[in-house]
């Protein structure tokens, strides 16, 4: 069979989907500099495909330039084409960063944190999904039987994640029907977001080769369990020393970590428009679903918006400090990891810069995407973080999505998003 190796370059866009273009791999040396052609309104593609609204029209040219640190080349050794792709930056034709590039948004957040306190953030993503290659057997949450019945999918997924130069941490059968979870090890913020995108695509790639699907939709079915994306994070100084924990302080948080958490809680109702960015996201953020409904910080409570995670004391104080982290739980896979993590870091950096304190009262989270977008639209801070062009584009993208599915029942809504994610 006559074949030629192809390479794909893409970006994980507002809709949380990787889009881009492929080309013959022999052209890679040139493409490393000029990337692939793109246009402004490509940013406005909804998760359903159509561009429903755009501030950019049909004019303009951009390029997605591959980042050598975000290259994936995974051969599943089954005769199928290897997964060979780069994640890249959206740039203007002169090579400067485009103001609406999602990776540039996260970089600006990283810079804001460094300016606020001189620290960097390490992060790791937990991602839940439904695997269609198993039968739903009730009563087997977290069980060896559910782990066994996924067959070789888990082995393929972990091998693919490792082959993509990402450190796999765990793979488990989760609480919901046919639900599984994968986690990867912590890394610096941009690399962690890259890893979240790549591991998600490796799950899709492994399932595809087994003629099945993975479904990352926040609510695959209206009366079922939700799929969350949980972001673990900790703060470190320039030499890599952890700066998140103070065992003598409330909840064990250092002063800077408490201020970071306070900033997240302060901005969280508006942040939902970015971290829970689909109409179906708000079917998950309801009582009795092990999902947050208020902006709160709790010690080892999986219903909290921000959870102080447990540490295991057996390794001693140095190990305890290295383990100590917070978990952000108001996120799902409809969000681009770059935007979700970037918004989280911007909010935390604002809390540090303004020396915020943990609020004494808990604010309710919005109960719909429209309500979240209203809060985002009223947020001066978020307008500053995005910049005027990106802010308008994001708002118009999400408002148009809300209108597009407004007439669907909850059952129909879940079915539509399950087809996409």
Structural shape: globular
Described by its quaternary structure, the protein is: single chain
Count of structural domains: 2
SSE topology string: EEHEEEHEHHEEEHEEHHEEEHEHEHHHH
In CATH, the topology of the largest domain is named Creatine Kinase, Chain A, domain 2
**Averaging pLDDT over every residue, what do you get?**
94
Label the structural class: alpha+beta
Termini separation: 33 Å
Treating each run of at least 4 consecutive H or I residues as one helix, how many helices? 13
- CATH class descriptor of the largest domain: Alpha Beta
Tell me the total number of β-strands.
16
Query: What's the architecture of the largest domain in CATH terms?
Result: 2-Layer Sandwich
Helix content: 25-40%
Strand portion, in percent? 15-25%
Poorly predicted tracts of residues: none
Gyration radius (Cα, Å) is: 21 Å
How many strands, which pairing sense, and closed or not: the largest β-sheet?
9 strands, mixed
At a glance:
With 421 residues, the chain is an alpha+beta fold. It contains 13 helices and 16 strands. It has two domains: 93 residues, Glutamine synthetase, N-terminal domain (Ubiquitin-like (UB roll)), CATH 3.10.20.70; 316 residues, Creatine Kinase, Chain A, domain 2, CATH 3.30.590.10.
């Amino acid at each position: 069979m006559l074949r030629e190796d192809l390479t794909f370059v893409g970006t994980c866009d507002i809709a949380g989907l990787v889009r881009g273009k492929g080309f013959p791999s022999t052209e890679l040396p040139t493409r490393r500099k000029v990337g692939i052609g793109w246009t402004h309104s490509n940013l406005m593609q909804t998760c359903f495909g159509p561009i429903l609204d755009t501030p950019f029209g049909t004019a303009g040219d951009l390029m997605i330039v591959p980042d050598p640190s975000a290259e994936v080349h995974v051969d599943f050794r089954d005769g199928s084409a290897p997964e060979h792709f780069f994640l890249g930056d959206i740039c203007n034709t002169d090579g400067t960063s485009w103001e609406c590039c999602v990776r540039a948004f996260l970089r600006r957040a990283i810079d804001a944190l460094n300016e606020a306190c001189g620290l960097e953030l390490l992060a790791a993503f937990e991602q839940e999904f439904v695997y269609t290659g198993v039968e739903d057997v009730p009563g087997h949450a977290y069980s060896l039987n559910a782990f066994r019945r996924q067959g070789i999918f888990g082995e393929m997924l972990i091998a693919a994640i490792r082959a993509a130069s990402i450190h796999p941490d765990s793979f488990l059968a989760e609480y919901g029907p046919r639900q599984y979870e994968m986690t990867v090890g912590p890394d610096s913020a941009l690399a962690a977001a890259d890893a979240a995108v790549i591991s998600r695509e490796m799950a899709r790639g492994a399932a595809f080769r087994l003629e099945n699907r993975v479904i990352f939709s926040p609510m695959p079915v209206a009366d079922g369990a939700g799929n969350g994306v949980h972001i673990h994070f900790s703060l470190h100084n320039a030499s890599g020393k952890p700066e998140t924990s103070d065992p003598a302080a409330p909840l064990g948080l250092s002063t800077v970590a408490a201020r970071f958490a306070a900033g997240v809680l302060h901005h969280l109702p508006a942040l939902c428009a970015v971290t829970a960015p689909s109409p179906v996201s708000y079917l998950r953020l309801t009582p009795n679903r092990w999902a947050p409904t208020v902006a709160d910080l709790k010690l080892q409570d999986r219903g909290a918006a921000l959870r102080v995670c447990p540490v295991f004391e057996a390794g001693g104080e140095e190990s305890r400090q290295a383990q100590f982290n917070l978990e952000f739980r108001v996120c799902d896979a409809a969000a681009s990891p770059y935007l979700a993590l970037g918004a989280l870091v911007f909010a935390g950096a604002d809390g540090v810069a303004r020396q915020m304190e943990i609020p004494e009262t808990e604010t309710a989270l919005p109960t719909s995407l429209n309500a979240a977008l209203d809060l985002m639209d009223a947020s001066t801070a978020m307008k500053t973080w995005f910049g005027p062009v990106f802010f308008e584009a994001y708002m118009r993208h999400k408002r148009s999505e809300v209108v597009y599915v407004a007439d669907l029942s909850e059952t129909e809504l879940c079915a539509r998003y399950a087809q996409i994610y």
